[in-house]
Amino acid sequence: IINIMDCVSGLTQDAVFPGEEINYKFTVPDAGSFLYHAHNMSWNQVARGLYGALIVDESTPVFDKQHDITFMIDDWQIDNQGRLNTASLGNMMEWAHGGRIGNLITVNGKYLPQIELNENENYRIRIINVANSRVLAINPNEIGAKVIAYDGQSLNSPRKLDYAPLLLGPAQRVDLLLKPQSTKPIDIINYGDRKPIKIANFNIKPTSKPKLSKIILISNNLPEPVINNAFKFAIKIQGGAMSSMMSAPIYKGKKMSMMDRMKTKQVWALNGVANLADEPMFDVKKGETIILDFENDTSFIHAMHLHGHHFKILTRNGDEDKEQPWKDTFLVGPNSTTKIAFVADNPGKWLLHCHMLEHAAGGMNTWFNVA
After folding, report:
1. How much is the pLDDT for 216?
2. How far apart are the first and last CA of the chain?
3. pLDDT over 70, % of the chain
4. Of 115, 150, 223, 354, which residue is the least packed, with the fewest Cβ within 10 Å?
5. H or E segment at 45?
């Protein structure tokens, strides 16, 4: 995607004001499951539902429309009258802690949808987490599903996970291959809360002549990182409640006092800087391999998201990541480290931020430049 179409207000474009319009025109280079959402006051506008799925089919689609199902999973804070609690948007407690977590989970805007599938037929289930801050936890193995893509990038072959559950942070996507083996209903359950919550249900219809389809996964052509001669950069995630925040983070070029932080809500930082600075965090040349070493020096999990590029996870807490699928978002736990690598093949100004949207608005938001 060309940089001026990345729609980040304050970085690649101005915000679009009421009554105005802007037309986006770009070529989609990769087939896969993607999403779009407001990138101005995201913590407010995404919480109200300003987002959508962007599905890019393969040149020759692998699944027909009846066998390609998208789940946009969101959560909402609903008040006692059953209305969206907009008065709580911008709550300082949420910004400084885990972010805005709703009390109602929906799939495609519906509570506990019932979807009909046919027995013994292959389906692609695209799961997209569009919640502000909730981390989902699902178990593909318990429903007999295999992973075929992460964050819009297909694997070489369907993969049965050797662990459970699969954590899915805000903005993360996973495509599952599901072939119901009987007419027993299949429940999709989120294990990410204090108790399991059923969020959707598949009702399976018997079929005398199932529609057989051969699954051939087509990987997108992404450049492989060259580790030996890479540009290396360390990023420390700082701030939030219950953490040792540095004494004077920089915001808009000035050091902030504790009072300043409370007034501006800039309670998070990356390498001591809160939110977008005038200068990029790092500047690289097109074609360079970049290795970013993240240290989460906070008490909360974060979903770190990279614009304009996909990367591979090299290590987590010093241990090699053996899967190494392509991703554009990764979860890093409290007091943990993650090292990623990618080729900076896309020129322009690119955002790097936590996709817990309250964390991003509260300072965990930076950018880098590819010359």
Report:
1. 86
2. 15
3. 98
4. 223
5. helix 42-45
